[in-house]
């Protein structure tokens, strides 16, 4: 049974954007940057639970959301509202099933009815994934940061095996 087929999935715990995940990690004493979280995903160490791609890759199966759950959430642009909206538009994807890594830097760009562009997170983690923090803490400490051409920081991790 798919988790989102359950009518009240995620009603007790909020989904976490990458920034929320980093903040919650810090609350637990694990220093983590969003760019490191991206590298952990790239290396398949800590993969987000959901992704809302700007364009769904051909052949990718959308993740459904139970209609009973979709009817309960109307919070404007909250993580669960974005996930439900993505599912209703057949845009919600399972990053673990995608096969290959796709960067989620920059997030999701959406236009309001007034033509204003807004950026939102395009991936979401389960708060239960925070349980893996201690296991990945050593990997985070092994990462090397480098400035890229855009002035941002990219982290790399040596091969795991």
Sketch the major β-sheet. Answer: 2 strands, antiparallel
Q: Would you list the SSEs in sequence order as H and E?
A: HHEHHEEEHEE
Q: Quick check: average pLDDT? A: 80
Rg, alpha carbons: 16 Å
Q: Give the termini distance in whole angstroms.
A: 33 Å
Poorly predicted regions are none
Task: Describe the protein in words.
27% of the residues lie in helices and 12% in strands. The chain has 161 residues and is of the alpha+beta class. Strand 5 (144-147) and strand 6 (153-156) form a beta hairpin. The longest helix has 10 residues, at 18-27.
What would you say about this model in short?
By secondary structure, the protein is α+β, with helices and mostly antiparallel strands. The protein has five helices and six strands, in the order ααβααβββαββ. The strands form three sheets. Strands 1-4 form a two-stranded antiparallel ribbon. Strands 2-3 form a two-stranded antiparallel sheet. Strands 5-6 form a two-stranded antiparallel ribbon.
